Amino acid sequence: MMHLKMYINGEWVDAASKKTREIVNPANGEIIALAAEGDVEDARHAIQVARQAFDSGVWSEQPPAERARYLFAIADKLEERAEEIGRLETLDNGKPLRETAFDVADAVACFRYYAGLVTKPDGQTYHVADPMQALVIREPVGVCGLIVPWNYPLLMGVWKIAPALAAGNTIVFKPSEITPVTTIKLFEIIDEVGIPKGVANMVLGAGATVGNELAESHLVDKISFTGGTVTGRSIMKAAAGNIKKISLELGGKSPNIVFADADFETAVDYALFAIFANQGQVCAAGSRLLLEDSIHDRFVERLVERAKNIRVGAGDDPSTEMGPLVSQAHMEKVLHYIELGKAEGARLMCGGNRITDNGREKGYYVEPTIFTDTTPSMKIVQEEIFGPVLAIQRFQDEADAIRIANDTVYGLAGGVFTQDGAKAMRVVKKLRAGITWINCYHPTYNEAPWGGYKQSGIGRGLGTFGFDEFTEVKQININLQVQPTGWFEN
Ligand code: NAD
């Protein structure tokens, strides 16, 4: 059994209270680790350390190329340990090995991307009236609180840690309390490469205590949060005390629109991938499938046939295509939504049950589930379920598709399938969403900004936009002819 500690000021420490939390393998309910359960006191300690480290300049004043060297070293070590870390992610989160292998590779690439970015041209100069010269530089924000969810425990962490450190900030990182294992491995690597003490800190524990303290503390300059919209709202309120900078990457109920002229098998294939990858526990999941009336029945038939064949099992079985949900509590929430869908009058086309046969009785497995005959006001159409549950909506024409697609409080992502390029662009431009796909669903790149419109968040992660979120902008005005203004005569 693993004993997981927190990393504060370059030391591995237990919670001040000595409390621990059991970490569970969702494939079989077994306890795999005891993690230190930090509290407000531990968070305050880490914040103070990060504050001192930032104010000392030990990190922010290092040349960008030097910070880049540390990040490249982290990437190399993460890559060397990719298999071990991928296995641990599967053990802790449940997702299949092929997904965790992808997550670790993407995390490595993210560190390299930001290591490369910090030494590239930056800033602006303006032509203003002589003898003045105006220029703009970027500086780190300061102490950053980074809070992430459990669906991509390592990757969501790296999406924040890499740009925050690259930009010269110091950090206090909080993983989800139920999936801390792989980010602890990442902090072992951060320790090994010798990043100065106090620059990168990790506190374990609950959102309401540790997370809230990060959001409230006046010693923290910025919060970067990924998680649910309800939590995001609470963080905005907590962050108001010192007008903290905030970036929020929140939930979604994203539409995947298939027109009658789409390549049929490609659209079916991506519709499955859009909702059932990572067991549907994806913020950008295509959880609403919008089908043009004329292909609706044929499409549903093919989709259901393929959904029934998805192999659901333990993530460490190489033949598994879909793993268990992350926890018993989350499985119960998803099953509750399925019951709600039935009660609301939607038609259950497949799935709908927990799976308990063939050694799966102690895990948190749910069948791939598809509902048709939905109406726009149903909860299964409006609310984020965050599981393998697809709600299908029918549309008549392009205008109808756009109207239905935008009819939720969310605006994270959306996909369009059609062989008419002009129509695809027209529809995508009308989607009130930050991430869109044409004739595909889900590809994500470290180079491109990630984030949502409406209640799906504020700001963007990844790419240069994601880097900018971890910087402040300063204008510098230089007088090249040093003499008084003469504004006042005497
Ligand atoms: P969550 O909001 O419950 O928790 C996320 C993190 O916030 C956890 O570390 C948690 O401990 C912490 N937290 C909880 N309450 C807090 C509080 N009051 N103050 C500060 N921190 C607090 O979300 P979850 O259930 O872990 O993850 C699922 C959610 O994450 C989904 O809604 C999903 O859409 C969203 N998500 C969004 C993105 C994105 O990029 N937009 C990516 C992944 C997941």
Structure described in brief:
The chain is built from 15 helices and 25 strands. The longest helix is centred in the first third of the chain and has 21 residues, at 97-117. A hairpin with a 5-residue loop joins strand 6 and strand 7.
Strand order of the largest sheet: 15-18-19-14-13-21-22
Radius of gyration: 24 Å
What is the terminal separation in angstroms? 79 Å
Q: Based on CA inertia axes, which overall geometry fits?
A: globular
Small molecules (ligands, ions, cofactors) in the structure: nicotinamide-adenine-dinucleotide
Residue share in β-strands: 15-25%
**Helix- and strand-based class?**
alpha/beta
**How many strands, which pairing sense, and closed or not: the largest β-sheet?**
7 strands, mixed
Average residue-wise pLDDT = 98
Helix proportion: 25-40%
Low-confidence stretches: none
List keywords for this structure.
490 residues; alpha/beta; seven-stranded mixed beta sheet; six-stranded mixed beta sheet; 15 helices; 25 strands; binds nicotinamide-adenine-dinucleotide
Could you characterize the architecture of this molecule?
- This protein is an alpha/beta fold and 490 residues long.
- The protein is built from 15 helices and 25 strands.
- Strands 15-18-19-14-13-21-22 form a 7-stranded mixed beta sheet, with helices on both faces.
- It starts with a strand and ends in an 11-residue tail after the last strand.
- Nicotinamide-adenine-dinucleotide binds next to helix 7 and helix 8.
